[in-house]
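Hello,

Our lab assistant flagged a job as stuck in the queue for most of the afternoon. It eventually completed. Since we weren't sure the result was trustworthy after the delay, we are filing this so someone can double-check. Below is the sequence as submitted and the structure that was eventually returned. Let us know if re-running is recommended.
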Amino acid sequence: MKLGRSFLLATLAAFIITLYAFPAMAASSWRLSNQLPPSHFISKGMDFFAEKVSEYSNGEMKVEVFHSAQLFKDTEIVEAIQEGLVELALVPVNKWSGMVPAADIFEMPFVFKDLSSPKKFIEAGAGEILDNEFQAKGAKVVFWVDYGLVQFYNNKRPLAKPADFDGLKIRTFSKGTADTVKALGGIPAVMSSSEMYMALQRGTVDGATTGMPAAVSRKIYEVQKYMTLANYTTAQFFVQGNFEWWDSLSDKEKEVLLKAGADAAESIRGSIADSEDKAYNVIKEGGVEIYALNDEERAAFVKATESVRSEFMQQTGEISHKLMEILESID
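-- returned structure --
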């Protein structure tokens, strides 16, 4: 009888120890959807984020990155995050423009002065304002991902003045970039980045607007004759999580993800200038004729796109005014 009772108590004790130890031993594993190819500097930043999550959690947390739209295309990713079909994803900010119109601030032509401007803008209060809007729609910003500046490409002629856009069908990636192309006299065609190469190769569109690193990683320079170095806007991204999933995490898990995200954001920012320089050289050596706008030509582009900025302010109300005030306050 005593032996049986001792055995029972020992078994119960072992069970209790196992029960309480299990959460510490079980690794949490989550997926991150990324539509960019592995060679892109942002994709490398996603891998860096995953490495830091593992490091800061001592291997108890794991993020598995799926590149090249293996899980979702950029046109599908917002719904996937909202519905909890994936825990984390690299999301182009412009994909929220229909539900959060103020997100189009990043697509406004000629509002960011240089590569450092997006970080200053986000840290000056814009990041918090926008994140509150996204949380109300079911998504949480884990960290912001700067991309670099955006250029124009086409197969017809150098684009030195707005009139040169007349009649050209240009691939765009958002409402803001589409409005810009239209204001310049072109015909915008919004399509996924994964569909861009084939459309250009087949002549479905005459040109495209994208960043130089993407033009290299997507091999756009192989099927285009001209690039206009305009630096007219930026294509901002962020890594977002499904809000219900985020809310279910422990404080420690959130802390690890935010810390790893901050490191990844800085790593990516540190790669932008080098990535742009290397991409420029690849594009040039690939035979693309590069035309750089001078100050007078750039001023003509700014004037031609004033309607895009004005319409944005009218349609997005108080939030856009706050965001524009922040833009005007940064150096």
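-- support follow-up --
The delay was a queue issue, not a problem with the job. The result is valid. The radius of gyration is 23 Å. Residues 150-234+285-329 form a domain with the D-Maltodextrin-Binding Protein; domain 2 fold (CATH 3.40.190.170).
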